[in-house]
């Protein structure tokens, strides 16, 4: 059945409402009173106080479709079939109420009965030592043992730096051998896109403290998360998450603006997907009060805008276009996020100013690079130093790939290893600064702060956000 993204969300929430879950609208992307996190990156993140028992939940059972941003996945965007920077995580939660048995049975019921996914396409994984989960899948649910894989800590033990965590169990969908890789051991957990991980069920039974101790929680919790775009891609049988109903319209928009046709496998196909992904993240981030800056969340936003703009140029769109694409995102998502409509003109304005600034950056960077190249000629060098290329990147926001491209046209190169070690040093500084993170972006009422003249005083870079080039 070809179900649209918004319909899948509704069915998921309805399913859990029927199982007595309190359905909560997505929390903002900016975490509230949580210094450990730059942006909400999972459905459980805004619910931490309920898991820890420091606040009383509205119900012992909840369900959400939570807006998430994962800057750590930015380099994967458009390359893998399944990674977006912004996505929605469908989640069901139990705060010391039901546990593994119910969580597993309901996940299976939803996938097979409500979504109609054939049993023979489904695989599950459990944590190496979790025989309890293995037995529930195998004996109670009836999944044959050769479709249950045991995975280690990196895949099947869910944890943030601190907070609730525990072993997990994942549901994968086998999309068929044509998506497979050359690894003879290709199975769920393989990094290719054949077995696509759609749902992660976390049996959170510990609270990890700053010193890395796992303290057993008095009452174990359930925290599940399923990527909305991923399940949509599976049900709509698209190659990747950027070709599902709501994303496709963004791709079409870029097609008509650039005059180019989207072809999945070409290098340009990647640019289409990156733009569609980033503009959606940008729209939601600005909608939740994030403003471009050189630090923290603002830097994540700046980087997404610049990257999208850069990919627009690669497609031959030379004038600023992102502000117009914002409207397209809002049109597609306003059924669930009508607050975006109210904020539309502000979002457009912020994106427009930032894209213009980027244009200036490019002009300025080219001037500086011209100067560097003159020096190179007079010194008889053919390679630009890591220090200079990093300075261009870090101080002037000039993307490394652009530096490379311009140099290559003249037969020169960049010391990329030198660039990386500069980056490494920067990352160390950032890691320290991050510890001082505060909760700017929230106003006194606990709402996302949207006022244009408030500088986001977020100290510290997201260590992930600067690790890769714009
Ligand atoms: P993967 O191994 O594919 O990177 P993950 O193990 O990092 O996924 P989890 O942290 O378990 O993902 O998050 C729960 C669910 O959220 C995943 O099963 C997936 O459906 C979805 N999800 C995670 N990261 C992304 C992303 N970058 N884009 C879209 N959906 C995602
Ligand atoms: Mg991941
Ligand atoms: Mg995984
Ligand atoms: Mg996972």
Explain the overall architecture.
The protein is of the alpha/beta class and 470 residues long. It folds into two domains: 5-235, BirA Bifunctional Protein, domain 2; 244-434. It contains 14 helices and eleven strands. It is globular, with a radius of gyration of 23 Å. Residues 438-470 have low confidence and may be disordered. The structure holds adenosine-5'-triphosphate and magnesium ion (MG) (3 copies). One magnesium ion binds next to strand 8. Adenosine-5'-triphosphate binds at residues 70, 73, 82-84, 87, 89, 197-200, 225-227, 229-230. One of its GO terms (biological process) is alanyl-tRNA aminoacylation.
Give keywords:
470 residues; alpha/beta; BirA Bifunctional Protein, domain 2; 2 domains; globular; disordered C terminus; binds adenosine-5'-triphosphate; binds magnesium ion; transferase activity
Q: Helical stretch count? A: 14
Percentage of β-strand residues: 15-25%
What binds here, in terms of ligands, is: adenosine-5'-triphosphate, magnesium ion
* Outline type: globular
Classified by CATH, the class of the largest domain is Alpha Beta
Residue runs with pLDDT of under 50 for 5 or more positions: 438-470
Can you give the mean pLDDT? 90
- Helix-strand makeup class: alpha/beta
Amino- and carboxy-terminal Cα gap: 39 Å
Total beta strand runs? 11
Tally of discrete structural domains: 2
> How much helix, percentage-wise, in residues?
40-55%
Q: Note the run of SSEs as H and E.
A: HEHEEHEHEHEEEEHHHHHHEHHEH
Subcellular location: Cytoplasm
EC number: 6.1.1.7
Catalytic activity: tRNA(Ala) + L-alanine + ATP = L-alanyl-tRNA(Ala) + AMP + diphosphate
GO biological process, one term: alanyl-tRNA aminoacylation
């Amino acid at each position: 059945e070809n179900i649209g993204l918004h319909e899948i969300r509704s069915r998921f929430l309805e399913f859990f409402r029927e199982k007595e879950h309190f359905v909560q609208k997505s929390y903002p992307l900016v975490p509230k009173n949580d210094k450990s996190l730059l942006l909400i990156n999972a459905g459980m993140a805004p619910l931490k106080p309920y898991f820890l028992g420091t606040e009383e939940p509205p119900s012992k059972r909840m369900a959400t479709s939570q807006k998430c941003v994962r800057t750590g996945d930015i380099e994967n965007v458009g390359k893998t079939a399944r990674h977006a920077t912004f996505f929605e995580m469908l989640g069901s939660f139990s705060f010391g109420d039901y546990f593994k048995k119910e969580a597993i049975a309901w996940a299976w019921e939803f996938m097979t009965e409500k979504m109609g996914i054939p049993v023979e396409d489904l695989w599950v994984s459990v944590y190496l030592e979790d025989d309890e989960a293995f037995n529930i899948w195998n004996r109670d649910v009836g999944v044959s043992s050769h479709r249950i894989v045991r995975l280690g800590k990196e895949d099947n033990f869910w944890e943030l730096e601190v907070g609730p965590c525990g072993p997990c169990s994942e549901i994968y969908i086998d999309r068929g051998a044509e998506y497979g890789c050359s690894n003879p051991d290709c199975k769920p957990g393989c990094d290719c896109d054949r077995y696509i991980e759609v749902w992660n069920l976390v049996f959170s039974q510990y609270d990890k403290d700053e010193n890395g101790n796992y303290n057993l929680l008095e009452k174990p919790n359930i925290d599940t998360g399923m990527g909305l775009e991923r399940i949509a891609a599976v049900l709509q049988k698209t190659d990747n998450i950027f070709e599902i109903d709501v994303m496709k319209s963004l791709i079409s928009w870029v097609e008509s603006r650039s005059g180019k046709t989207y072809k999945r496998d070409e290098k340009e196909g990647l640019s289409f997907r990156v733009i569609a992904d980033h503009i959606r993240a940008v729209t939601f981030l600005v909608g939740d009060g994030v403003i471009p800056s050189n630090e923290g969340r603002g830097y994540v936003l700046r980087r997404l805008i610049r990257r999208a703009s850069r990919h627009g140029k690669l497609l031959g769109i030379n004038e600023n276009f992102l502000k117009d694409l914002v409207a397209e995102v809002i049109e597609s998502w306003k059924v669930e996020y009508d607050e975006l409509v109210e904020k539309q003109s502000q979002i457009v304005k912020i994106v427009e100013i930032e894209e213009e600034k980027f244009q200036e950056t490019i002009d300025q960077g080219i001037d500086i690079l011209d100067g560097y190249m003159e020096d190179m000629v007079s010194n008889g060098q053919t390679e630009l130093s890591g220090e200079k290329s990093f300075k261009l990147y870090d101080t002037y926001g000039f993307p490394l790939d652009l530096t490379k491209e311009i140099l290559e046209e003249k037969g020169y190169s960049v010391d990329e290893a030198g660039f990386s070690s500069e980056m490494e040093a920067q990352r160390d500084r950032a890691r320290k600064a991050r510890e001082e993170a505060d909760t700017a972006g929230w106003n006194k009422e606990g709402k996302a702060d949207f006022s244009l003249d408030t500088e986001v005083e977020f100290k510290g870079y997201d260590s992930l956000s600067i690790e890769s080039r714009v």
